Amino acid sequence: MPFSELPNSLLFECMTLSLLNMVKEGLISEAQVDSFNLPFYTVSPGEMTKLIERNACFSIERMELTDPAPWLDGPVNMREWVVHVRAAMEELFSKHFGREIVGEIFDRLIKELTDHSHQLESKYKEKTLLFIALKRKRFSSKST
């Protein structure tokens, strides 16, 4: 599935919109936004299989794409989602944009996600979370 169809792509798109609106309002600079980089990569099941096989310490017992929120019945609570995102990313934003503006960034993210919730509702039930059960391989030790 292309990244653009994943729920996280909408998250990052809304994050971009929030930051660009803050540039227009003079709250942060365009240079700050242009130089900001979130180190995020979504691995495919095929790529993960190759990595595990190359490592050779584990065998794959089970691998499947699952629903990232099977308990979710109804609309996504954007505020709760952003609380989790903020817990993971706040330090990156603080170091780059300054601690004093971080609350504003995440408040705007909630608003953008809420405004785009109809797009998210169609994506969050897709099987996009990679679940893997690994088993450590036992290597025999040879004494010489």
UniProtKB/TrEMBL annotation:
Pfam families according to UniProt: Methyltransf_7
Key words of the record: Magnesium, Metal-binding, Methyltransferase, Transferase
MF annotations from Gene Ontology: metal ion binding; methyltransferase activity
InterPro entries named among the record's database cross-references: MeTrfase_7, MeTrfase_capping, SAM-dependent_MTases_sf
Keyword Magnesium included in the entry's annotation: yes
Source superkingdom: Eukaryota
GO annotation, biological process: methylation
Keyword Magnesium: yes
PANTHER family registered for this protein in UniProt: S-ADENOSYL-L-METHIONINE:CARBOXYL METHYLTRANSFERASE FAMILY PROTEIN (PTHR31009)
Identification of the protein by name: SAM dependent carboxyl methyltransferase
Organism: Hevea brasiliensis (Para rubber tree)
High-level lineage: Eukaryota, Viridiplantae, Streptophyta, Embryophyta, Tracheophyta
